[in-house]
Amino acid sequence: MSTVFNFTFVPWFRSVAPYIHTHRGKTFVVALAGEAIAAGKLQNIAQDLALIQSMGVKVVLVHGFRPQVNEQLRAKGHEARYSHGMRITDEVALDSAQEAAGQLRYEIEAAFSQGLPNTPMAGSTVRVISGNFITARPVGVVDGVDFKHSGLVRKVDAVGIRRTLDFGAMVLMSPFGFSPTGEAFNLTMEEVATSVAISIQADKLIFLTEVPGIRMDSELPESEDNPIDTELPLAAAEKLLASLPPAQRPTDTAFYLEHCVKACKAGVERNHILPFALDGALLLEVYVHDGVGTMVIDEKLESLREATADDIGGILQLIEPFERDGTLVKRDRTEIERDVGQYTVIEHDGVIFGCAALYPYPEARTAEMAALTVSPSVQSQGDGERILKRVEQRAKAMGLESIFVLTTRTMHWFIKRGFEQVNPEWLPDARKRKYNWDRKSLVLVKKL
């Protein structure tokens, strides 16, 4: 392997490690639109799901089959009929749905059975188990429209699904349900996935769809000035949903959003809308800081707060590369454990992405801000300034008049934010005695 590959791979792999640890033992319900399979994406998605499962995640895969059923209907010379955003399932459509579901389950199981050398599936052992986990009821007649064999979820066998997941298998579900009398009903993939996620209280509900996510302004077209909103709080999602017309097609903004909102309100903490057209979208969403789609959450996952003892490991992992290259002075674990209460951290989804410590010198009415660090993966997003402002607020609350930093490489960043360089002799006596004259750190002060 080339030196360039090694240089980029190692820090990247280390950066995803916190997410691997965080997601181990968690349960994801992944809803795969039939359009993704029709577009030839199954192979890569199966590889990504197998990789996610290998890292300790329990996976329920719910597949759709909208285009496959329509193809069957066309072959039979029968028209696909919809109303209220749902298929009207007559006898011919029910037969077509059963044929499509059988074919797709065969293809999906085959995709997870691969293990050729030199492929991502080499050495993988993915057991795929299906079952009659859904009890359904008929939609009936709505606004004068008889939906015939279209159904709604009545009950989910949550215990059976959990036992299958605990066995180490991936649960595969088709959008079908059965009544207590054995009658089959055609369901929607979106409702099945949402109902299952709520019933088993999954940690994530992920829709792999035709749409890239929800844009910052849903009424404007795609552009650099209108990017995907990667994190949508539940309150904002509900407000947006109320302003949208009822969804009729999967490409409508409200189509998947309403299911994310429903799941979020019922206790599923993180609900995602991802584009299947982007190769590796699952991995990018789950193991990269900002992800690539829209995540609907009950509250902002990012928090700016004072550190606790539980954050010591995260702080050490964050600052270690900067200590190694000489940007920061080396601090051992004992020192950080002793001073953890002095640290302010930025945490996102359980991972520490930024920190700084504040060491007051009350006799001189000043304090040192030390170890200001932001992870390279999220730099230039304003986290450093947010931490600085929080540290300034803490210093003001202590009645201090200034804060100072010692730096050898980031002088200009601090000067742009109101710091001024002073002679090291300016330092409080207690800090001056610990000043490393060989390191020749610059002393920068900001008045509060």
Describe it.
With 448 residues, the chain is an alpha/beta fold. 37% of the residues lie in helices and 24% in strands. An eight-stranded mixed β-sheet has the order 5-10-2-1-13-15-16-14, with helices on both faces. Helix 7 (189-199) packs parallel to helix 9.
Summarize this, please?
This protein has 448 residues and is an alpha/beta fold. The protein has 15 helices and 23 strands. The radius of gyration is 27 Å and the shape is elongated.
Helices and strands: which structural class?
Answer: alpha/beta
Number of helices: 15
C-alpha termini separation? 52 Å
Helix content: 25-40%
- The tally of beta strands, per DSSP, is 23
Strand content: 15-25%
Could you name the key traits of this structure?
single chain, 448 residues, seven-stranded mixed sheet, 15 helices, 23 strands, 37% helix
Blueprint (SSEs and pairs):
Blueprint: H1 3-23, E1 27-32, H2 34-38, H3 42-54, E2 58-63, H4 66-75, E3 82-83, E4 86-87, H5 91-112, E5 128-129, E6 134-138, E7 141-142, E8 145-146, E9 151-156, H6 158-166, E10 170-173, E11 176-178, E12 184-186, H7 189-199, E13 204-209, E14 231-233, H8 234-243, H9 253-265, E15 270-275, H10 281-287, E16 294-297, E17 302-306, H11 312-324, H12 333-339, E18 343-348, E19 351-361, E20 366-374, H13 383-397, E21 402-407, H14 411-415, E22 420-422, H15 429-432, E23 442-447
Helix pairs in contact: 4-5, 7-9, 8-9
